[in-house]
């Protein structure tokens, strides 16, 4: 009898446990469904996307974690000795370059898009050409002109302008970053509705008042987007700043790595990461306060405004900026390249450098195209907090300087994956982490044109999510994926600080040779590599011009 009672009790307990487990399972399923706002992706696709995003963010996370173990003494010493000066140098340079580049970009966009500037159609694309000239290449050209042993010294006895100064760095960075604002602002000006200006004129406003009270508010989002791109670029730049002997966080981090003081480099990196995050946060807060809308139902193209007596001064200003940012640097490089080629610069070593660049950039482009597809598919077709986190982690390397990505990879490879340390694959992996978001952006724009109904039809035939992606979606968005790969290839070709920090001994690329030869003032050997980089960089410019 006792045994029967015990069995009944155990049976009841088992039923209760099973009921609890079943209820708990249903509860978890309901939470999981709510997270995905309905249908969830397959586990294969989700695990793949999550794994890729963690790998993309791991070097940055590793740098932050290692900085926490640097010790209070090292933190205090750097905060007392180095950080105040680096902070002032970095912030002042970022602010001044951003302000000047925004001013130039907005003025040029207004003259080209809204005024009867002679040759408007030609200026629309040639004013964007400075984007194909890496600032460190531009620095080489201007050192040749204004340096202590430059052309002006040969002609005048002394240079009228000290290129190795704060304002020299400002000048070089401004000349090669203003197109960010020029392109984005030009795009907004094309879409502006004339009805608002007509309404303002009916209230008695003149052209200047309309610009400040009507046009400028509509342009603020575009100006802000261009400004944030410029600010982030200045924060991350190493080549031009180092060539012009100016010290910012990026240069200091690189020199700490070169001095094998990686712990101090992590501390400085965390400071720079904090600056980057702060700028992004301020930009997001400002964006929420400047939303402006216009109706497309009664859209009218804006009028072309006559410049009148200001036509020729405007043309001279536009031509002067173009000459300083494109004509002069290219002319200097062509002069040195002619001398270099005559002295045998295009020897087997040069083509070896070109082959190295081609190899690592091609690997980065190919892998980026492959890895970007699951991320953008998850974000587009399965929106949730999980895919948002995956997307943000994947972008983390793009928002930070290449030197910090390199520092994270040095820690990871030297301590955990030694067979990758000091190999060209380490360089390729750094390129992937830095530039895969460019492939994601291009692929995402193509995916947005593919109807989700195609996915639903494929799934109704029994295909899991990952097969839908590879059999249905990828063939549809392949042109966008290839365009993104081209962007990654060109960006990798120009990348300097990550390449310098991670390259194995004897493995030089075109960007590295430009750096080495220019720092030793052997400009005729640096110029051919610089011109090849510029020529290849024309590839993404065509894509950007069609976009904007």
TrEMBL record:
Keywords, in A-Z order: Cell inner membrane, Cell membrane, Membrane, Transmembrane, Transmembrane helix, Transport
Domain ABC transmembrane type-1 per the UniProt entry, residue ranges: 87-281, 354-544
Chief localization: membrane
Gene Ontology BP, a term: transmembrane transport
Annotated TM spans: 43-65, 85-111, 123-143, 163-184, 222-243, 263-282, 314-337, 357-378, 393-413, 419-436, 468-490, 521-545
GO cellular component: plasma membrane
Membrane topology value: Multi-pass membrane protein
Subcellular location as annotated: Cell inner membrane; Cell membrane
Highest taxon above the source species: Bacteria
InterPro entries named in the record: MetI-like, MetI-like_sf
PROSITE patterns, per the entry: ABC_TM1 (PS50928)
Family per record: Belongs to the binding-protein-dependent transport system permease family.
Protein name, UniProt field: Iron ABC transporter permease
Lineage: Bacteria, Bacillati, Bacillota, Clostridia, Eubacteriales
